[in-house]
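WARN no homologs supplied; continuing
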Amino acid sequence: MISSERISKRVHQLGREISEVYADIETPLVLVAILKGATVFAADLLRSLSIPAELEFVRAASYGAGTSSAGRVKIAHMVEGALAGRHVLLVEDIVDSGRTADTILKRFRRLKPASVRLAALLDRPARREIRVQIDFTGFVIPDRFVIGYGLDYAGLYRELPGIYALS
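OK structure emitted
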């Protein structure tokens, strides 16, 4: 569906956009990657920034071994660093139902950050159940289950360099 070359180009564009938006902040941007799927995207995005940034992680899941959201979000690990007064960018591999991003963004807002925004490599609006604002979008995709570039099916295929539809 999306080649590694197209992904690389778009991630670098997003890095420039994000760097411009946060150019005047006084503390490093806090990138928070959602484990495990967003790790590849977050690493490439971090390297494409021209501003200081820190990297934190949240572990959340709503799929299990299936191809559709289970309808509830399990959070196994939250950010270890303080977010109060900091500018936070949540980095998501794909916004699907919207449940994972919504759950984490609500938790972050309770921690009183200076700002909180969402960057998603993929937006699949056809499955949206909860409205979430994606501030930085890589690609809008059709209603297909996708793998590669960090996204998996039952733990497999994360290593693929592009984005592929699972048939």
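The chain has a mean pLDDT of 92.
OK
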